[in-house]
Amino acid sequence: MTDLLFAGDSPxxxxxxxTTKTIFPLSHYVSDAPFxxxxxxxxTPAQExxxxxxxxxxxxxxxRRHRIAVLSGxxxxxxxxxxxxCEFLAPYDLDARNTDFxxxxxxxxxVFDQGQLVWPFVYGYDYRxxxxxxxxxxxxxxxKPEPIRFFxxxxxxxxxxxxxxxxxxxxxxxxxxxxLAGTDRLGRDLLxxxxxxxRISLTIGLLGVAVxxxxxxxxxxxxxxxxGWTDIIVQRAIEVVQxxxxxxxxxxxxxxxxxxxxxxxVYIGITLILGMIEWTHLARAVRSKLLALREEDFCTAAVLxxxxxARIIGRHLLPSFMSHLIASATLMIPGMILGETALxxxxxxxxxxxxxxxxxxNEAQNINVVALYPWLMLPVACIVITVLAFNFFGDGLRDxxxxxx
Amino acid sequence: xxxxxxxxxxxxIPTLIAISVVIFTIINLPPGDYFSTYIAExxxxxxxxxxxxxxFLKAQYGFDRPLWAQYIFWVGGLLRGDMGYSFAxxxxxxxxxxxxxxxxxxxxFATILFTYIVAFPIGVYSATHQYSWTDHALTLLGLLxxxxxxxxxxxxxxxxxxxxxxxxxxxxxxxxxxNRAWSFGKAVSVAAHLWxxxxxxxxxGTASMIRRLRANLLDELQKQYVVxxxxxxxxxxxxxxxxxxxxxxxxxxxxxxxLLPHVISGAAIVSVVMSxxxxxxxxxxxxxxxxxxxxxxxxxxxxxxxxxxxxxSDIALAILDPRIRLQAGRRQ
Lengths: 405, 332
Known about the structure:
heterodimer, A: alpha+beta, three-stranded antiparallel β-sheet, 15 helices, 13% strand, B: mainly alpha
């Protein structure tokens, strides 16, 4: 008798011992399919797409779930795209003066005329000079509806400096005016100037960040990789730069720029100044990451294989936290845009004819503007939207930067 | 603790020296000096400059000596409390600034106080009521504060304060108190004017402080000791204030270091807009007219304020948090 015990056998049954039967093991199952050693590791195409995704693809997946960040990204993309077409988008030229309409308030776009849905139009202005206090009074004239034209021909411009064109997205009715954001003290259309100003304000943030990104990676990389004395010196230097209040230092540096410089040179100078002070945070981040990473095995392996430091830092170490760096760089852009705005507002930054949002706000420098011409403060809406969008986008990017988490 | 204190002070000295070198370089970078601009200006308007006096001043302030000698002269003066000579005002800088330095300190200090008082309850509330409507609204408000250029906020607030509260536009006190000795009435007037700049300068800092406190507190609230304490039935308020809040408070103290440069930056531009009698507007003028000693001394003063602020916050942090104290001791 074989003493085979199966799980189902209870002790009592055995104790009874009345029926002892021989139990044969189950017949052995043999699969006759060909042997495939990777059978368990094989994935469905959908799984494969998921598991083999590159880091950046995963960052994108994670970012996509962050709805506000995606929306902000879309807004930013649109704004940067508009830079390319600002001549087309703006109803007027940058410096076109409408001398009959100085300090004209914004006109509202209407689509209902006497209860009927009609083509978008604005009411024309009746202008009168109030002789008692020399105030310019503009009153809407409901008898003068002025339909807005779309994709229309108006003032000529050279598109990208190459093609002659006169196509605009919106224009006023023929021989009429259209000031959706009002005009300034020279009668220049503020909306057009805001559209043109985006070109400078938006790019100055990007270029400034590019400068501090380069500086931060270079200096932080050297400090983190070599450690020791280099590290101590760099640390002290960062401390010195950080203990300066940024704005006064920016003011002092931009006061250095010679008055004789051309606007483009001043633009480059301001970009450099903005970038030269903001690099410290990035350098700190790079340094602390490198200090930890250089002890890793893959770094030692690279050293043993004879890779030069520049290659190790650039090829092996930096990519492992590049997404973090880009996220924090994105969060630095708003500070630069605000910095440029402040400098230009004080008259130390860009100077006309260069037009940025800060230069436009320079017009809104005194309290009279708030009281009499509040629309001159409209460029601030662009700044707030841009800064908010960059903040949300950067936040989303930062959360998505570590997709393996 | 004492060794930590000494260590910190020793670190401060080379930092300050480096800062002074940088500032001296910056103010000497523009081509020419105040005198050459001044003489050119006078000649273009057909007047004759008092060359003898200019030569005297030049010799007095060592303009003919090499740069390093000028630097040592300047720093030596600073150490003795002599901030040099303002050529634009024709007075020693000490007399020009008057109580502007004191006003800057008052405004900065009051702003930081405001930041703390506002950020603390809001941050705690946001963290304990995460994702509630109030939390979302407060977060949005904070972000708006972060995104609005402070100078414009200053203008608008100034206007409304004048329209609704009748507070005189610009300045830090009613006109009749300017250039008077400090009295109770003057202090009250300063307080009535101070709140606008404080709100304006403090908004951005407050917003970031709220975000940081909220994030820190949320991290702490997820930890197991909080769950344990809750399971034991500890009163929610006692639980919150006794443990997680204390842990989340560290950045509150250590942030003075990063807050102060922002506050001083903000104060500089806001005081230009509001013409406050602080260092900001005068620095702007000095930079424009190349009045180098005045500009340099102001920059140095601002940087000094920051360094001292960081120092104080480090010491406060070490007193509050034994981990930092011990770590610093071990490092030596």
